[in-house]
Amino acid sequence: MLVHTVCSAQEAMDALASAPPSLRYHLGALDLHMPGVDGLMLASAIRTRSPQPDLPLMMLTSFRDRAEAAQARTMGIEVYLVKPVRQAQLERALAEVLSLGRKMTDNTASSGQRLISARILVVEDNPTNQKVVSLRLQKLGCRVDVAANGKEAVQSAAQIQYDLILMDCQMPEMDGLEATRLIRSAEGSRRHTPIIALTANVMSGERERCLLAGMDDFLAKPVRSDALIEMLDKWLQATKTTSQAPEQGDPEGLAAFVAELRSEGFGPGDAADLLRSFQRSVPSLMERAERGVAQQDAAEVSFAAHSIKGSAANVGLKQMARVSARLEKACRDTEPWPEIEKRYRELAAVHTDTAPELVRLITSLDNEVAR
Predict the structure, then answer these.
(1) Are 294 and 209 part of one and the same domain?
(2) How many other CB atoms are found less than 10 A from the CB of residue 340?
(3) Rounded distance, CA 20 to CA 48, Å?
(4) Quick one: which of 283, 312, 317, 289 has its CA closest to 302?
(5) Taking CA 194 as the corner, what is the angle to CA 227 and CA 235, rounded to the nearest 5 degrees?
(6) Structural domain of residue 143, as residue ranges?
(7) pLDDT in tens, 210-254
(8) Euclidean distance between the first and the last CA atom of the chain, given in angstroms as a whole number
(9) CA angle 22–26–27, rounded 5-degree value
(10) Does residue 321 lie in a domain region?
(11) Tens digits of per-residue pLDDT, 96-135?
């Protein structure tokens, strides 16, 4: 498979226009949130003004949004992936978009072909919802505990090391946001349990509140089996590779990212190249953010923070991605400049703390290649 990457909507349209008939593209993967012309606008341009109006398309986004997904479907985009994209997700998406005829394996667990071994805490105050989600998880092979409110969830998480927590947002006694904050505070840098928000409200504001509380992802209610399996595939794989990582106590997740690449068949040279690409791109973005802060240019700071957020998430640096998201939100919400400066300093500190480990890991991988 030949892959051609471009950095903007205009470059994408130029590539389509200049491709000879013998090298027509078979698939376009579009980032939804791009500066200037976003992914939906680019998809519309491809459908109406490109030499390949029927080009199969998939959309990549940082957050799942029903309205955006529905708009994407009107343009013939059926696959809508949330970043960072795992290999298994990408393989299924390629099979679907390209109509390769390969049967999807998302539902094979129910037939006994694939079981998911994990202990999961379901935090939900509605008894019917508790039962539905628990039964689906048990059918997949998971061991399930249930908490009826945030207070019970905090107590359970303190006693048991869960592989993943499904957290309702609105509950009596203590809501899911407060429970998540307390769980994150107790974990510190020693551990990061994936916490997935269960919410009927998938609007942008609710998503931001969940992220700021320390949640990792979102699952819309009512919970569908295919969406549940996709979420487990995404986050339990990350947990598994973290536990197998050769370097313990890596709070940013670089070692976990390298371990995941190895499990997917990539060699040390591939891992080093990916980390080196991140290492080279982020300093200029940090400088751009610093200039924006100095000039009180919220748009400039927001652009840099958004770019860092996506890059960090893709190499397993969840802490850096979360801090970048907070800075981006502060800019979008036009918070006072002292608050934006504070968020920038937090990001700069995380970047400084990450740099030595990044250098060490790249050097180790390069030495492995040399041997």
Answers:
(1) no
(2) 23
(3) 19
(4) 289
(5) 45
(6) 113-244
(7) 888 888 888 887 788 888 888 888 887 644 444 433 323 234 578
(8) 29
(9) 145
(10) yes
(11) 776 533 333 334 333 443 457 688 999 998 888 888 888 8
Q: Which amino acid is at 82?
A: V
Would you state the torsion angle of the CA atoms of residues 72, 74, 76, 79, taken in this order, to the nearest 10 degrees? 40
Pair (341, 298) in one structural domain: yes
Q: Phi/psi zone of residue 224: left (φ > 0), alpha (ψ -120 to 50 degrees), beta? A: beta
- Joined tokens for residue 112: 């006994």
In this prediction the pTM is 0.42
Claim to verify: residue 230 and residue 263 sit in the same structural domain = no
Residues 216 and 328 in one domain: no
Q: Name the token pair of 298.
A: 């919220």
Amino acid at 53: P
Boundary residue ending a domain (210, 244, 278)? 244
CA distances from 119 to 51, 187, 210 (A): 50, 17, 22
The residue among 221, 244, 267 that closes a domain is 244
| Calpha distance 254→258 (Å, rounded) | 6
